[in-house]
Inverse folding.
């Protein structure tokens, strides 16, 4: 948990030095989120489809959060009103509106997309144990052995999936698959809306 006192100690300053810049912990966390949002590229390539534009925006967001995985959980349930956050939301909503979604639907899609990206990063296999690679390998081995030892008559699918459930060798493929799954659903919703209007 982030505290002003602990952060000041880590930085080698007094808590009052931080309070000079941030009135409280919430202001500090908001500034951190704004800084992370500022790294997301909101540029839109007008030559590609709205779906490809939204994919590029989500790719950029995922890349930035992957570069700062320990702050990803901050984005759950916190509203950020920094200029960079507002700009990113504006771009996302505009892309989705051009995709045929109403303002309410675009808001829901945008919220679920952000939540999915946060959960992809915060739930990255092995994220919690990233600092100690040996500990991570051991935890994965124990998980695989546990799954393989389950009663085969009750859990045949868990047993056959023991290796992929207990390991994630290619994190880029993990992110690509998660984004593909999210965006395929969004594009399918848009296609159904088009068919309903036609």
């Amino acid at each position: 948990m982030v505290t002003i006192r602990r952060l000041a100690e880590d930085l080698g300053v007094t808590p009052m030095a931080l309070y000079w810049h941030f009135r409280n912990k919430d202001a500090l966390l908001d500034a951190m989120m704004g800084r992370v949002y500022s790294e997301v590229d909101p540029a839109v390539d007008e030559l590609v489809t709205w779906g490809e534009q939204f994919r590029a925006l989500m790719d950029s967001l995922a890349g930035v959060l992957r570069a700062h995985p320990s702050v990803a959980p901050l984005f759950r349930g916190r509203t950020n009103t920094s200029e960079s956050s507002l700009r990113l939301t504006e771009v996302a909503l505009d892309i989705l509106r051009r995709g045929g979604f109403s303002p309410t639907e675009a808001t829901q899609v945008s919220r679920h997309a952000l939540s999915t990206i946060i959960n992809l990063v915060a739930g990255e296999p092995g994220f919690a144990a990233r600092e100690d690679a040996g500990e991570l390998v051991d935890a994965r081995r124990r998980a695989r052995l546990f799954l393989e030892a389950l009663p085969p008559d009750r859990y045949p699918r868990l047993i056959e999936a023991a290796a992929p459930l207990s390991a994630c060798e290619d994190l880029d493929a993990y992110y690509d698959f998660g984004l593909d799954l999210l965006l395929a659903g969004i594009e399918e919703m848009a296609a159904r809306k088009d068919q309903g209007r036609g």
